[in-house]
Amino acid sequence: MKKTVIQFENFSFKYRSQAKPTLNDINLTIYEGEKVLIVGPSGSGKSTLGHCLNGLVPFSYKGEISGSLEIMGEETRNLDIFALSKNIGTVLQDPDGQFIGLTVAEDIAFALENDCIPQKQMVDTVTEVSRMVDMENFLDSSLHRLSGGQKQRVSLAGVMVDKVDILLFDEPLANLDPATGRHAIELIDRIQKETETTVVIIEHRLEDVLHCHVDRIIVIDEGRIVSDQTPDELLASNVLENCYIREPLYLKAAKYAGCEVTAEMKPSHMSSFAINGCKEKLVSWFEKTAPPEKKAETPPILELCDVSFGYHPDHLTIQGISFSINKGEMVSIVGKNGAGKSTLSKLICGFEKLSSGRILYSGQDITKDTIKERSLRIGMVLQNPNQMISKHMIYDEVALGLIIRGVPEHEVKERVERTLKICGLYPFRNWPISALSFGQKKRVTIASILALEAEVIILDEPTAGQDFRHYTEMMEFLCELNRQGITVIMITHDMHLMLEYTPRTIVIAGGKKIDDDSAVNVLTDSEIINQANLKETSLFELALRAEISEPREFVERFIAFDREVRQKWL
Amino acid sequence: MAVEMLSYIDRQSPVHRLTGGTKLLCLLFWSSAAMMTYDTRILIFLVLASVWIFAISKIKLKEIAFVLIFIMLFLLINSIAIYIFSPQEGVEIYGTSHVLFELGGRYNVTLEELFYLFNVNMKYFAVIPAAILFIVTTNPSEFAASLNRIGISYRISYSVALALRYIPDIQRDFRNIALAQQARGIDLSRKEKLAKRIKNAGSIIVPLILSSLDKIEIISNAMELRAFGKNNKRTWYRARPFQKIDYVTLTLFVIMLLITIFITFHDGNRFYNPFV
Amino acid sequence: MQRKHLSIKTIVAIGIGAAVFVILGRFASIPTGIPNTQIETSYGFLALMSIIFGPIAGALIGLIGHALKDLIFYGSIWWSWVVVSGLVGLLIGLAWRKIDIESGIFNTKKIITFNVVQVIVQAFGWFVVAPFLDVQIYAEPANKVYLQGLIAGAANIVTVGVIGTLLLLAYAKTRTQSGSLDKDI
Q1: Residue C180 pLDDT more than 50?
Q2: Model ipTM value
Q3: What are phi and psi of A54, to 5 degrees?
Q4: What coarse category fits the chief subcellular location reported for this protein (chain A) (predicted)?
């Protein structure tokens, strides 16, 4: 029998500011050396569970605890957060928030410094740990210069210096592009094997985590544990669907095709998934499912002609990019961190001046237009809605741009109300913005752009940090806008988003356009996938293994079918 | 908005070799001396000495030219303002009046006033190279350790480190927010009336401030989880031990400060008076 | 857990607060049209931080923020004004318990308290202390520095009165619980 390292017994927790408990009657035992994944929709209590483990609850977030939580045999209530941090190392999700040091080495050394470790010993430990995460050549780099994946390595190293017994990862894949996410999962796997620590991962990107072996998956919904099984058992059940957690796509496809999935078929990984029994069903499902409708061609609304730009004259961030976007299209711009996606959107909005090239809007040259002039046609929505909201009430926020432009009051009212209706915010118009959820705040920022009657909107990571259900709501909302004639451009590294919602994808790498094709073709082209840090979709592999004649077409039909099914959630 | 700011310039020089703590103390001694004295001889010495230290630091003039231009402009305006407000300040201080040009009554240009203005500017010149050198030759990573070293609590020292760490982040946020708000038609330039401009500024600074307040919570959690504040002291990864050069430099600066105090105040007057 | 020293949150607030002070001071000053006089939004922010985090945080944000701003952007430190920034942060911060912004209530009475405090504190700081230090340190003509203090002080009093009050109102609103909000159909 293995040693118990974490034991919840009849554990409940209620935040001081909330009426109802966030965690109810949790019973959970985790053994030494196990690798456990905790999944659940937003607001299910999965993050709170993590906070209970690392001591942020109750030492930083106050509230009432009942029942017991023992870590390494000690009741946590009798410890303090410092003692807990010796046992549990936490890697938080927000990379900017958790980097405290100015350079990589200092950040890794932070916990050692607080422990008064002598400098000499500190240098040795930092070198040793940085080698484990392959960051030994970056010790003097400033954290601003690192890529998302490198930042994650640094934060992992920062908690490993303490030789902790348990590593806790709170949404480690948020903000990572697909390929980097896969490396992160491989790294966690390797570190666990080398150090024999217990690993707890909280994450909703299930398919990505399952890239490496996981011992058990705990599903939390509404503050309770609804499932505690091995991945194979869980995936064979319908627990995930009931909790609105995205199942691996290949599995979903098999289920749609009517295959009976059992744990014995090892569905936790595409390569182990035994599909011989359901090949026929997949093929016949493919044949009887209608292909998605193609949209009619429309005239171009936005054209970039050989656009170049550099912050320094001798170093171009954007090199000769040309493309044309038609009215009413929904397009995604993808590429790895630092490829130039965000710069490109800034150029389109006029935030930066082109070094050369032209931008046309409905055939008119707008290269010389100011930010303000362009904003009547093209709106930009930042990733973090909190960075755009300055008013207290929803109505005022949406009206802000109109009032500043001196639009007469009655017209402001009419336009704001119309926009709020389109955005599904009309019932909330007299609410304070602070009472809204993250996704709703984002809608407010979109509404405030649409009120200016922009015909093109550019969104930076519209679904970052949202669970499957909120993701679906946000994207269906954008599709609705799109149906009403708004052209939508999205900057993203979410492959599901590309595949499911944008018929067309523009791929940027190293400041150049390397592809401009349908999302399905992009995500099945291994060369583009490598250059842009993407990942081949598992649906394609499933289609190949099921010997479907047109695997790309299979992917498209699945996506269209799946979206139909999810419409019922709204 | 590529605004230049002073930042660490990595070189090999005796000034770089000094620890941050030494440099901070020296800056304090140096600026205390320059602030206290009005003795022209000491000011000239301080200015010449700081030019010499600047030369051995291997920092090139053009790397800091943008700051110098700004300061020159400031000093020029300041001198004109002093003259406009108090054209006979020098006469009052030095007790004599040698008129150079007649500009009518109060505004007669006196040798005393010019000498006084010369002294005012020398006072600034004595400090500027030292302050600039401190910023450009001290590795920001070492800065917090040096503050702690000279007796400031490590908690407060760490606040300074955090400020240095987050200034670029906040600058980037500010820029993003400002652009996004401009795209909604918010104008901060002189084209708008003042009252409206203040209102418009609100729509940039409110999101900046509220999102920065959110950061505070995330960062405190991250620090708490990694046991910041556990002990009464902490060690520093980038701290550098005091060397012989540090002790020698500090001693020299202390002597310089003492001599300054002695020369300045021994006759009960801060000013060196060449006119009597 | 009672701890004597500053809490981690206060330390972080000082660090981030100083960084925001630097950026606002450098990029978000609004020219008034009167030469050398600007609406320094950073003092509105300083007042907000003093009221949220108290006098020690206020003092250090003013001191560190102003000193860093001078050093990084202007390559020199105007100690007399740096000291006053710290003093203003400190003294406004003394009203934090009385105003208790975390309660989410910032009513007319509190607005008046806040403004009375900030006017007295800033008048003392900019009209008295800053020019006094300028005369002592730089021996500049008294009438010049007192006039400078008067203009800058007046501008800052107005800035804190308008922007500081608005920021506090905005912040107080984020503290209220959403409670029983109904949709209006």
Answers
A1: no
A2: 0.91
A3: -90, -5
A4: membrane
Nearest-by-Cβ selection for C76 from B1, B131, B210:
B131
**Residue B56 in contact with residue B15, Cβ under 8 Å?**
yes
For A528-537, write each residue's pLDDT tens digit: 999 999 998 9
Structural domain count of chain C = 1
Two tokens at A84? Answer: 């807990």
Q: What is the largest CA-CA distance in chain A?
A: 75
- Encoding tokens for residue A171? 């949404």
As to burial, measured by CB atoms within 10 angstroms (0-12 exposed, 13-18 middle, 19+ buried), residue B175 is middle
Within 8 A of C183 by CB-CB distance, chain A residues are 427-428
A100 inside 8 A of chain C by CB: no
Q: CATH no. for residue A174?
A: 3.40.50.300
pLDDT of amino acid C179: 46
Interface of B with C in 128-167 (CB under 8 A): 128, 131-132, 134-135, 153, 155-156, 158-167
Question: For position A512, what pLDDT does the model report?
Answer: 94
Contact assignment for A111 to B182 by CB distance below 8 Å: no
A72 and A139: one domain?
A: yes
Q: Using CB atoms within 10 A of its CB, is residue B48 exposed (0-12), middle (13-18) or buried (19+)?
A: exposed
Structural domain contains residue C183: no
Give me the domain span that covers residue A566: 246-288+537-570
For A301-323, the pLDDT digits (tens) are 999 999 999 987 778 899 999 99
The verdict on residue A295 lying in a domain is no
With a cut of 80, say whether residue C31 has pLDDT above it: no
C-chain residue closest to B33, CA distance = C137
C-alpha–C-alpha distance, residues C61 and C17, integer Å: 6
DSSP β-ladder status, A35-39 and A88-91: unpaired
Name the residue of chain B whose CA is nearest to A107's CA. Answer: B237
Domain that holds residue C61: 8-174
Share of chain C above pLDDT 70, in %: 90
